[in-house]
Structures are given as C-alpha cells and as structure tokens.
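Record filed below.
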Amino acid sequence: MKKKLDYPQLVYSFLGLLALLLLNISEVKPNRIAPGEKFRLFELSGLPMMIFVMGFLVLMLLSYDFSGSKAVVSGILSPVLFAGILFVLGRVSLDMAKDAPTMRLTFSAGFYGILLMVYLLVGHGLSKKPRRQYLIYMGLLLSGAVMVFLLTSGQFQVFSIMKEFENKRAQFFTSFTEHLFLSMGSVLAGLLLAVPLGYLAYRRKKLESFVMVPLSILETIPSLSLFGVLLVPLAALGRLPFFKALGVSGIGWAPAFVALTLYTLLPIGRNTLVGFSTVDQSVIEAARGMGMNRSEIFRRILFPLALPIILTGLRIAMVQTLGGAVLAGLVGGGGLGSFVFLGLAEGSPDLVLLGVIPIVVMTLSLDSTLKALVKRLRRDEL
C-alpha cells in the first residue's frame, strides 16, 4: 500500500517551525509605557532552541504515513513543546529582571503563531480518532498542570499579563463573577423561555412562523442597537421600588442580561423544534398503543429523544453568550469586557488578553463538555 503525506500535519508543523525561527517571540519593555526591544527565541536561549527545532522537525516527519499512533505522538508532543517554550521565556525573563524590577515581557507574533499551530496540531490529531485518544487528553492535562505549577511558583511573574493581573486582582475576580452571572444566567433564562416556545411551535404547526420569525428578527438586531432599544423601557421599569432594589436601570447589568437572553432564544428554540420534529411518529404511535397518555409520551419518549438536539442548541447559545457578554462592558454591565475596553482605551494588549483568555478557556471547556454529553446521549439511544 502506497504511503502518503498528511498535508495538514506537515503544513501546521512547518508553519510552527517558521514562527519559531523567523518571527519575534517576545518584546522586553522597561515598563508598561515605554517601547521595548523585540527578540526571537534563539536570541534568548541556547540549547533549548535546538530542542524546540528538533521537536517541530519530528512533528513534520510524523506527517509521512500519518497513522493513529503518530496522531497520538503529535497530540502529546506539540503541547509539551509549547509548555517548554513558556518555561524558557519565564526563566529568561526572571534573569533579565534581576537588575530591572519594572521590566516586563510581552508576547509577540511568533508566540501567537506557535500557539495557533499547536492548537491546530492537537485538533488534527484528535480528528483522526486514534485508538488511544485518551493519551492526547492526558498529555494536555499534564502540560496544563505543568504550566499551572510554573504560574503558581512565580516563574511567569515578569510576563506583562501577570503584572496586569497583580495590579487588578480584585477587579478581575469581580468581573469574572459578573461575566459568569450574565452569561450563565441569560442562558438559563433563555432555556426556560425557548424550550416551551419550541415545543409550542412543534405542537401547533400554524403557530410555528409566529414563534420563529420574531426570534429570527431578534437575532439580526445588532447588540448596540438592542441596548439602545432597551434603554427607555428598563429606565422606566427601574423607577418602580421592586426593580429599583434589584438595580434595574437603563444602563448596567439589566440591559446586558435582557439582550443576551433574547439572543439565546433562536438557537435553543429552533433546536427544540427540530429535536421534537425529528422523533419518528411511529415511535409515538407505538407508545399510544401501549396506553401512554400525552404527559407520559412527552416525559418518556419525546423529550429524551429530542434532548441531544436541544443540548446542541444550548451549546450554540452558551458559546455565543460567553463571547457576547463582552459587550456588557459598553453599558456598565461589568464582566470581563471591562478589561477588553479598558485595554483598548489605554493601548494595552495585555489588559485585553486578561479579559479575553478566561473567556476563551471557558468557551472551549463548556463547548467540549456539552459536545461530549450530546455524543454520549446519542450513543445511548442506539
């Protein structure tokens, strides 16, 4: 059998090697404001650079006759290489900061290029569905644990993003909590509203357009425009004693919460309708023949069979809302978006990253968890 090259594996590893060799990986700045000097990795390290180059060459060689076992090796080796690069940057920055306590290290294009290629390599390895796929996840967990250990031991304290975190530690955790409240709370509210609406559209076909068309229209309204539309009614509502005690007003958490909830209705409602509609009518007729009433058919047949598709809609809504909650910072709603807009105003990319990175981590984690749950439910149905 003719052996072939796996072109995605070859391209990702080759581009990672180019980023390692040719692009600046960091910028060393004397303080937060002053411009710094940019460095490539080989200018900061000696022997470790050769190890990283060899690692990416190995990843390129794995593209020849790329099999399940090679996918596992690639999925483990690539995050290990990235963790090693972070460790080297941390050690070098600590040595450089001994005589300059205000010095900070900011990541440059080469770092983000390597990070992107490592992400693609891990994803490509997982897409091959190797027999020992769990080893890739173990490698990711081990690499993550090593980076967390280095973080808590102070190896990354010279990194600019860590300095920004230390300066705004209390505000960060407050904003993180607000972001979770806005995103998870709005998804829960959307779930409670959209599932009954989707079921209503399924039960009454004549009402489907009356339910789904308004939800589709809501989805097309730009976020800032929707905030403006909600300003007047929420300001009026906030004059009532009960809502005033809750802090409801034309600005703040209320318009952000309402807007995010409205944006979750279409993906959850549409998937609820599709989920119920895809249940085979012969299964429902068989349940009726067994003497089940409408409530029992819903609880034991309809809802369990539609649940995987409903959860898919929930996953879409959750990913959408975690990112959309950033805009709450524009109307005083808090959340991690306040770091994003503050960083943009101050010209501080690391402050922007301080708001963006937790959102990316939460999004990927929740998306993977719900995707695995949907896959498990569908496997149980078979």
Q: What stands out?
A: The CA atoms of residues 220 and 263 lie 9 Å apart. The chain has a mean pLDDT of 88.
